[in-house]
Amino acid sequence: MMKKIVLAVFLLMGITLQAQEQPYSSAVFPSQSGKVGQNLRILYDAKGGDLEFSDEVSVAVYRFHNDIWKMEQFAMKSVGNKQWEYLYPVSDSTLFVGVKFFQGDLYSPEILDNNSNKGYGLKIFDRKGKAQKGSFLAEASFIVPTLARGAIINYYEGEPSLDKTYLSGIIREEEKLSGNAISSRYKLYLGAQRLLLTDQELAPVAEKVVNQLLSDRSISADDLGDLQLFLQHQIKQDRLAEQVGKRITEQYPKSATARFVAYSNIRTSSNNLNEVVASYEDFLSRFPITEWQKKPDNKGFIYYAVYRGIGTGYFDTKQFDKFQALFKDIDFRTSNELLRWNVMRAYMFNTVGKDSLYHIAEPLIQMLISKKGDGSYRSDFMNKQAADSNMNNQMDDRLFTHISLLNDLGRYDEARKYFFELSDKGKYGNAELNDINLHVLEKLDAKHDILPLLEMSIKANAVTPRMFDTLKSLYMKSHSGSSEGYDLYLTSLQSVDQRAELEAYVNEHLNINYPIPDFSMENADGGFVDQDNIKDKIVVMDFWATWCRPCIMAFPGMQLLVDKYTNDSQVAIYMVGTMQTGDYRTKSVNFVRGEGYRFTLLHDAENEVNGQQDKLFKSLVTPIFKDSSIPRKIVVKNGVIRYSSGGYSGSPSKLMDELSLVIEKLKSE
């Protein structure tokens, strides 16, 4: 009660209670009365500051104009006594001006002064010297730069401290000044209120603003869409966002905004997959893609996402007829994604019988081929060349899966025709696909096509051990059973460009000089290998695990390397199983021997720190590898790691050539 009495006395005496002092400074605006249509004098006193001894001082002027921050920069004029001046013409609609001073480049200044990150700013009055509606909200966006769009985001170094008491005061001033018109700047107003109020307190404030906006029947669909997104994502008022969404649907049922609202409301997650599918179907019945295609906008991503979602739903619920029907109206980009995610996934994990998968995929792969030239990837890339390259790569990948399926089913004639649909790069650039091609030609008894395939695969450096064996057999058959000259013949087939590229790669990675840590690792027979076993040798170590598919895919290439150096006493090659669980010894040995590989197998030692089977590998992550991915290969000479490379390119012959080149370079030192 006493507080109310005191307040009443103050009011009767004509005393105004002052709000808390503004957190920023207006000291650089000596007139303190900026008006639109006049020059605003900016006077900077550099004495005692970092810019005191600067020969040149510039000013960056940030103005809040038409509800967005814009920035201009100017050279200031020296007026003596370490003071600098600039006269800035204030245009109409400017509500607030902020400035900062600097020497050099604004974006990497030698010296900068923005009042110790508190800012220099000034509200701008109208031509009659009265406060402008929106000027207090502009001020709010100056002290809270995330409230508004534009250049003010770069005004501060990090986030400035926020005085909520001051912010609350200027918001009250704006409410008194603007009244219901405050709703025209709802993003600034409600954004500021969200910093001051709880969600429960914010709800009625936001509802009042929304009702004011919705009272205008002429509000456009786009403006309603902006309001709905703001309510839903910026201030988390879902009930009001739903109310605006209903207004959009009722007033503009066929608009792009209504379509986006409907897309936002699709049930993309539910324990009942049929409900998810039904939600996608409802969207497509209301907003068919054929209608969008007549007048496309920049929201084509909606249909990409919708078809991806409904396609997965149909596939996972075994509605394959509906899945196939989707492809009639969609472009190459979307068709490719549906095939990639569903058909390739089903093939890899054997979730659909291969005969059934063939009948699903066969008409769709033909449809995909017919859509190659539709240009649907253009929006994702800077130029047509890059888009076409990506399209070819995607088409090659889908063909790889389909050819593999046909090969598994013994449909060799059909598989053969799809090899001709591959891009120039795809025809010979994949070793596994080349091996399938060889198998298909053998099954079709197409003897005259086998040697050209093998020679082109050698040129692309994408060859499997079986392909090498076949090539050598054909060579010896044509040379009366003799292998003399075979190595020279093989070298003549190899691409000069491929060799140069490989040489550059090896040279780039042959730059390590790190002593291998002390180790002792058990081999497959229960013995141990340590530093003494590798001194005076060149040693290749391949870190792998049974759970790592790329590691296993690289095994044929490692077998080629092992076979090449099997009689070379200077070279040792170890396959080091690492980061495995359970009975990793039995698991690793059984896998390698069961697959017929002739490897010297080692088991990484158990780590005292974490108890895992990764002691040597983890000791090399920080100094050498920089990450924990496998496969990872190192080459050691005389106990010192000289080379490291990770991953697998997909070509056994290329892997063999890479590590052979490293070994020979180290031998020649």
Automatic annotation (TrEMBL):
SUPFAM superfamilies for the chain: Thioredoxin-like
Signal peptide: 1-21
Every Thioredoxin domain range: 510-668
PANTHER family: THIOL:DISULFIDE INTERCHANGE PROTEIN DSBE, THIOREDOXIN-LIKE PROTEIN HI_1115
UniProt-recorded name of the protein: TlpA family protein disulfide reductase
Organism: Sphingobacterium tabacisoli
InterPro entries linked to this entry: AhpC/TSA (IPR000866), Thioredoxin-like_sf (IPR036249), Thioredoxin_domain (IPR013766), Thioredoxin_ResA/DsbE_sf (IPR050553)
Residue ranges of coiled coil: none
Organismal lineage: Bacteria, Pseudomonadati, Bacteroidota, Sphingobacteriia, Sphingobacteriales
Keywords: Signal
